[in-house]
User: Fold Alkaline phosphatase from Linnemannia elongata AG-77.
Amino acid sequence: MTRSVSCSRKSLASRSAENVDACASASDWLSSWRLLLLLPQPTSSPRAPTPSVSSPGRSRNVIMMVSDGFGPASQTYGRSYWQYINGHSEDAKTSLDEILIGASRTRSSNSLVTDSAAGATAFSCAMKSYNAAIGVDPNGNPCGTVLESAKANGMLTGLVVTSRVTHATPAAFSAHVVHRDMEADIAVQQIGDYSLGRQVDLMLGGGRCFFLPNTTEGSCRLDDRDLIKESKNYGWEHVVFNKNEFDALTTEHNNILPRHTMGLFHPSHMNFEIDRDNKTEPALHQMAEIALKSLKKWSTGGEGFFLMIEGSRIDMGAHNNDPVAHVHEILEYHRTIKVVKDFVASNPDTVMISTSDHETGGFTLGLQPDPNTYPDYLWRPEVIERARASTEILTQNLILFHTANKNADAMNIQGQGSPRRQTHDYVRKEILDKGLGITDATEEEIEFLSNAEAIPNDILRYLSHAISRRANLGWTTMGHTGVDVNLYAASSVQSGNRILDRLRGNHENTEIGDYMSWYLQLDLSSITEKLTKSADKWFKPKSEFFAAEHPHSLHEETGH
Assistant:
């Protein structure tokens, strides 16, 4: 069901203004640029050859994969669980393990702990910026992105995600706003309504609500702009809303999508993989496979392509401290990695990079629940295997049950047994047993979850920690941490291993953007110059953003 979205931003804007203003100070700006000047410049590396211009008929391609919120512990978790459920030995490697090449540092320009907006902007603009920045520099001015520069070079471009397409990571490659919560403005730019025009040829994910006018139920916009209708004016030819339409369109075009296709498969974020209905939403690996086939088919003239693929909801499972949703998102990302690796292996002049913007959750494989008791050195994959749903969907189901009971009481409708007994039975059987595979629930747990006045976020956290504790898994936060994250890469055989030399070892996240610019021979500064010259016609500065109300992106509730 769709639901209306609260658009009040006064408290958020007040707090964000303080943070963003602080990051725009002269000292912060100079510090970030001093840091960038110290980094190795892409054109001066002695280790890797400068990529030559592709031969006629051959395309140079980059596939940038972002595993949002996915830290080193999460990869170990995913591998161990995958080995357990498939009966593999301890030396079995996942699709990611085979291409580990280094590590990425994650700090932003104004914090040692980044958010996804600044993290993605480091990749897209090869530049450190402040938390909440989308395709803008530390002063809040637009910076050219690798996607835009690729398009300027005549390349094809695509975005494939499981979050809203207007969310931080895809937005940072395809839009420029001073704050990530400006998702209504991000959607406008993504269809092509800004100085550069339409820059994306293929866009698949969630977030339909920011493309619908406020006269439509479930819209997240404050205005009456119908971006689905307007998108046709910018060259978008097809828009699909569910998997049936997606499959029909690919079948009609010989197992690829036609150019300029937009798929918006959910009003907000697409469902967690464990909750996904295969009849209504495609999986990440399915979208990625079709995107790759389509971009290759379109690139018959040797244009080449840039494609960004994000495992968006890995992060959100960790934000919820939900080990069930988290691991199933990881496994789906592993499947997507295999699809992309197979493509890279069979297509010349192609490079794939996979890394994370940050770690989420402070996740630990091991827990000491009682500081007075010596901890057990183990964690229990069998506990996770029994679960059948995310704590997010179970929380929603429980809230609906409580609401229905309140309405029944108000109408004096009598059910089977006392209301208290009914609630206890529902919590025990439907939420804990069938949902999480918990059969040893305590009376305290039953009582807490039976409280119809409990806040949804408290229920979510309670369920997540109930199964985490039984699996002996730990979380230190429901937010991000500042640890380094793994860096993975692979190239086609024709490119040779040396083409990846610049990515080996430990790097600042901006160096990943530098590498993509180097490999594709892009000029980000020229795009920045174009954006700056026309900014007064389309760009909203910080002063304008914080002086007005804007649609609330809900990112605080559903993942950063």
Residues 61-364+478-549 form a domain with the Alkaline Phosphatase, subunit A fold (CATH 3.40.720.10). The radius of gyration is 24 Å. Residues 1-48, 53-57, 553-559 have pLDDT under 50 and may be disordered. The chain has 21 helices and twelve strands.
